[in-house]
Each structure stands twice: as structure tokens, then as C-alpha cells.
């Protein structure tokens, strides 16, 4: 019965979306989208430097001779020849094309978002653990540094931090756009992870630490073997939420020269003029990432619950 | 047993303790425990019994005085507390078992981490300790699957796994259902009979009377009275103790 209500509400919502798009006289062209996910364009082979082309008589291979220098390369394994014998080509000109299925820009963007999020996740976890432990430290210097970090990061917008990382830190340390983006995301998420871990540790009864210490364990040993394993289990749900946020926040790095899923979406919109379809597709792709993460965490939670 | 001949394991001298909020926890407390002795500490709640016990392995700091355990000054700042604590087992009122580990793992964790023994013989020894407290069949159970009495017996075995010279018991039966109290006291009696040096903070007068070599009565942070069990319970020469015993033995 309630399941029926659930479906009914979804259907009504779908009809409303459709009616709304009709009102603005929008023509849906879903057929334009798949080629940006995966297509048959093949890959182009480009000239590594300026030079003259010599095509073999059987047209199965070509040799490129450098214009001002002695380098020469033989290129084989292509399906379509794009130059003629004796042509002068410049660096990055297309020489030939190899057909086959290749990932479209949206898929490449998805892959970039995934890479970026994965790297940022690992480092934010480490950073958060260190800062979280610092937040409960008795040493004033350690506590002060950890608290300043958390407050500074939580008090400024991520977009501003990304600009600072890209234009200032990235320039000073000569970081690539990817490194700067991943670092900005890791530093941002790390501050939230730190607070989650601190809360998790503080939720473990003091008796646990006392029991471990009374058995002769040092504080780090007690943390490692007694407190943190229990805290980890308790913090898993909020950590999962934070990491889902991380995946979504990664869309903000599209302001840098990084073609993540969101940036790819913008580029595809520019060439298709089909913003509705593209953004729905992009949203769906984000959902696939976050949904997979949720599923994985739920599995992990279930397994830990058995102990 | 000739008490005076045995070596002194715990020496508490003029210990005072003021908590951070200004409350006085201990006042000029002095006490000696020799090897093989069982000393029970009784008194009303808030009298400083647990505080005194917890200063013995430095879970609580002291403000003045001196405590020597196994010949080392506990609060001097020079003692290796982690090392010292491996010789002093402690059993808590609320068990404090590690909930993410099985009973057997609870026993094996500290010896393994602190690195006192090889793992192969450790497992056997811990199995034997579980058998000793009557829980050989619960080795793979998690604490949540055990009753309070069973948990406390695992906790005792866990402390014994470090092969301590001294065992401290902080109201070990206070959190138990009445019918589970005796299974824990029985384990403690066996330990006492085997010659373990024990300090027991307890409300179990019957246990104190039957097992203790000496009973200490504390009130308002002071040791008010101290004697062998028979005179302590039969003919206390202290009005405050008489009043207290009159209350609890009613």
C-alpha cells in the first residue's frame, strides 16, 4: 500500500518534470548523449614534432622525419591515414586514426573525479586522524595547532580554499593542477574527519583507556588496539557521509584546469546545446559514485557489527 | 603466616589528594601491604577507598606523600609506569572488558602488545586462565554475550594474564546482580588461597571477614581504623566503625 504511494509520488514528480520542460518548449535529444560517454571515434595519432611524412608503399606504416633535427619515428597499426606522402606536418597534427571504442569526455571526467576523490579520501583520513588525536592531546602546542587547523578550514569556503591552493600554494610549490586540487580537497575534508574522529574517541568510555593502561599498555598502544578500533566502528556512518560530501565537493575543482566530471559536463553542454540531458546524466554519474560508496560502507558496517 | 617476615610490596606514606575542583580525596593516608596479604578496604561511598586504590597504580595522581610499589616510587616521576603496571593487575567495578574482542583475545591482547611472551605459549596460558575462572567454554564469546558475573571473571583472568605480583580490586561485585556475586567472590577466594597479594575495595563484609588478613575502614578520606578481621567485626574499638557496621550489617 505505502509502496504504491511511493511509486505514485515518483510518477507524479516525473510527469511534472516533463510538463515543466514542455512549457519552456524544450526538445529532448537524449540521442546526443551516449557519444559523450563512449564513442567509436577512435584515437588519433599525433606528430610528436615538426617534420616530413614518408608513407610506405603498402600504406600500412609511415615514417616521420624531423624538420630541424635527426629524430625519426615509424608509426604503424592505424586504420585511417590522414596525411599524404611528402606532407609537411607540425607538432600535434593528426597523422592517422585508429578506430575502436573509446571513452567519451564524460567518462574521462568521471574517471578524473574518481581519482581525485580517492586520493583526497586517503590523505584526508590520515590528516583527520592526526588532527583528531591532536584535538584531544594535552600538549597545548599540539592541541592549539590541531584546533587552529580545524577552525581555519571549517570557517572558510571550500571554493576560496581551492583558489588559494591553485593560485598561491600551487604556484609557490609548483604543484600540478591535480596535486593542488587533491590537496585542497584532502585538507578541507581532513578538518571534518578530525572532528568526527575526536567525537568518536570521546564517545568511548574512559574505563577502556584505564583498563588498557592498567595492563601496562602505553597511551599509543591503548589507542591503537583498544580505543581506535571501537571509535572507528562508531564513526563509520558519519565518515561515510563526509566522504560522500568529498565526492560531491570535488565538483568545485572544475574551476581549475582540471577536467573532472562537472567540467566535462560544461564542455559537453557547450558543444551539444542540450543542458538538461547533460546535467541529468552528470547527476546520475555522481549518484553511481556516491551510491557505490554508500553500499560499500553499509557492507563494512554489517561485517563489523558481528564482532 | 608470620606477617612481619614477608617483604613489603605496597607502602603508602602520608598520602594526601585534593581534586582539581578543590574536593579533598585523601588525608594523610598510610598503609602497608606485604607479599601474600589480602587487605580489604571498606567504608561509606565517597570515603576515598577507590581513590586510594587507584593511586596505587597511578590511575590517579596524589598531591602529597609517597607511594612505593614493588620498591619503586609510583608518583616520583621517575618510575616506568607502564612497566610497573604490568606487575599490578586491576579489576574494575564496571569490568571494562574490550567489547570488540572475544574473551580469549581480551586476555591475550596486553601480553601480546606489551610484548612479555611468545604468542604460542600465550594462547595456552590464557586458555588455562579462562578454565581457572570457570569459563573455558566462553573463549570465543564477545563480552556482550556474557553475563555480568562472567564478564567480571574474564576481567580477573585478563589481569592475571600479565602474571602480576599484586591484584587490585575496585568494588568488583558492586555492579553485579545479587545471585552473580558469589561466582566472582569464589574466584577471588581461590586467588587469595594461592597466596596472591590483594587489595580489595568492597562492600562484601562476609568476604572481608572470611578472606582478609586485615580490614581497613576509611571515612572522609582518612583511614579511621585497621585490624585483623575477627576483632574488626567482633569488637571494633571505634564508634564510627561501629555505627557503619551497624548500618551495613543490619
Describe this protein with a few key phrases.
heterodimer, A: 307 residues, alpha+beta, four-stranded antiparallel sheet, three-stranded antiparallel sheet, extended, B: 250 residues, alpha/beta, 10 strands, 35% helix, 24% strand, globular, ATP hydrolysis activity (chain B), ATP binding (chain B), ABC_ATPase_HisP-typ (chain B)
Q: What does this molecule look like?
A:
The complex is a heterodimer of chains A (307) and B (250). Chain A has 307 residues and is an alpha+beta fold. Chain A is built from 10 helices and 9 strands. Chain A has helices at residues 2-23, 34-37, 105-135, 140-154, 158-172, 177-202, 206-214, 219-249, 261-272, 275-305, and strands spanning 38-39, 43-46, 51-55, 61-66, 72-76, 80-81, 88-89, 94-98, 102-103. In chain A, helix 3 (105-135) crosses helix 6 (177-202) and helix 3 (105-135) packs antiparallel against helix 9. Chain B has 250 residues and is of the alpha/beta class. Chain B is 35% helix and 24% strand. Chain B has helices spanning 49-56, 81-85, 103-114, 119-132, 148-160, 181-193, 205-211, 229-234, 239-248; strands at 8-18, 24-34, 38-42, 64-69, 72-73, 88-91, 166-170, 197-201, 214-219, 222-227. In chain B, the strands form 2 sheets. Chain B has a 6-stranded mixed β-sheet, sandwiched between helices. In chain B, helix 3 packs parallel to helix 5. The model of chain B has no long low-confidence stretch (mean pLDDT 92). The chains are: A alpha+beta (307), B alpha/beta (250). The interface between A and B is medium-sized, with 19 and 25 residues. Chain B: Pfam families: ABC_tran. Chain B: This is Amino acid ABC transporter ATP-binding protein.
Amino acid at each position: 500500500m505505502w509502496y504504491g504511494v511511493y511509486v505514485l509520488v515518483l510518477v507524479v514528480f516525473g510527469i511534472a518534470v516533463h510538463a515543466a520542460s514542455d512549457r519552456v518548449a524544450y526538445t529532448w535529444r537524449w540521442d546526443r548523449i551516449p557519444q559523450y560517454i563512449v564513442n567509436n571515434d577512435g584515437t588519433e595519432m599525433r606528430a610528436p614534432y615538426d617534420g616530413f611524412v614518408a608513407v610506405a608503399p603498402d600504406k600500412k606504416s609511415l615514417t616521420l622525419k624531423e624538420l630541424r633535427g635527426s629524430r625519426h619515428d615509424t608509426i604503424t597499426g592505424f586504420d585511417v591515414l590522414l596525411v599524404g606522402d611528402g606532407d609537411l606536418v607540425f607538432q600535434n597534427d593528426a597523422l592517422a586514426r585508429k578506430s575502436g571504442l573509446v571513452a567519451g569526455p564524460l567518462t574521462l571526467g568521471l574517471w578524473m573525479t574518481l581519482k581525485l576523490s580517492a586520493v583526497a579520501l586517503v590523505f584526508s583520513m590520515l590528516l583527520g586522524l592526526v588532527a583528531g588525536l591532536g584535538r584531544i592531546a594535552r600538549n597545548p602546542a599540539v592541541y592549539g595547532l590541531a584546533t587552529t587547523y580545524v577552525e581555519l578550514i571549517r570557517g572558510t569556503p571550500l571554493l576560496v580554499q581551492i583558489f588559494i591552493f591553485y593560485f598561491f600554494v600551487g604556484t609557490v610549490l609548483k604543484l600540478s593542477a591535480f596535486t593542488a586540487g587533491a590537496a585542497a580537497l584532502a585538507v578541507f575534508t581532513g578538518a571534518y574527519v578530525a572532528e568526527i574522529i575526536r567525537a568518536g574517541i570521546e564517545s568511548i568510555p574512559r574505563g577502556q583507556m584505564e583498563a588498557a593502561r592498567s595492563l601496562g599498555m602505553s597511551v599509543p598502544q591503548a589507542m591503537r588496539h583498544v580505543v581506535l578500533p571501537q571509535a572507528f566502528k562508531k564513526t563509520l556512518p558519519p565518515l561515510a557521509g563526509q566522504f560522500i560530501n568529498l565526492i560531491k565537493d570535488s565538483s568545485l575543482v572544475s574551476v581549475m584546469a582540471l577536467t573532472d566530471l562537472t567540467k566535462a559536463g560544461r564542455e559537453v553542454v557547450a558543444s551539444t546545446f542540450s543542458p538538461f540531458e547533460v546535467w541529468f546524466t552528470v547527476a546520475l554519474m555522481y549518484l553511481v559514485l556516491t551510491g557505490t560508496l554508500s553500499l560499500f560502507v553499509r557492507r563494512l558496517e554489517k561485517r563489523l557489527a558481528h564482532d | 603466616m608470620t606477617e612481619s617476615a614477608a617483604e613489603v610490596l605496597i607502602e603508602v606514606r602520608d598520602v594526601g589528594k585534593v581534586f582539581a575542583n578543590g574536593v579533598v580525596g585523601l588525608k594523610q593516608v598510610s598503609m602497608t601491604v606485604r607479599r601474600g596479604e589480602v587487605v580489604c578496604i571498606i567504608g561509606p561511598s565517597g570515603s576515598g577507598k577507590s581513590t586510594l586504590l587507584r593511586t596505587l597504580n597511578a590511575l590517579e595522581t596524589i598531591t602529597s606523600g609517597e607511594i612505593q610499589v614493588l620498591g619503586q616510587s609510583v608518583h616520583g616521576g621517575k618510575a616506568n609506569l607502564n612497566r610497573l603496571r604490568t606487575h599490578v593487575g586491576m579489576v574494575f567495578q564496571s569490568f571494562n572488558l574490550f567489547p570488540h574482542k572475544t574473551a580469549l583475545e581480551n586476555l591475550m591482547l596486553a601480553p601480546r602488545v606489551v610484548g612479555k611472551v611468545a604468542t604460542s605459549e600465550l594462547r595456552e596460558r590464557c586458555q588455562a586462565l579462562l578454565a581457572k575462572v570457570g569459563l573455558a567454554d566462553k573463549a570465543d564469546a564477545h563480552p556482550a554475550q556474557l553475563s555480568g558475573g562472567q564478564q567480571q571473571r574474564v576481567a580477573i583472568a585478563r589481569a592475571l594474564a600479565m602474571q602480576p605480583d599484586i591484584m587490585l580490586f575496585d568494588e568488583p561485585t558492586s555492579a553485579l546482580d545479587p545471585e552473580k556475586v558469589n561466582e566472582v567472590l569464589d574466584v577471588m577466594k581461590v586467588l587469595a588461597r594461592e597466596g596472591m597479594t590483594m587489595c580489595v575495595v568492597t562492600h562484601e563484609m562476609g568476604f572481608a571477614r572470611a578472606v582478609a588478613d586485615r580490614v581497613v575502614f576509611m571515612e572522609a578520606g582518612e583511614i579511621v581504623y585497621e585490624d585483623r578481621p575477627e576483632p574488626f567485626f567482633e569488637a571494633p574499638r571505634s564508634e564510627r566503625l561501629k555505627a557503619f557496621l551497624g548500618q551495613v550489617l543490619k
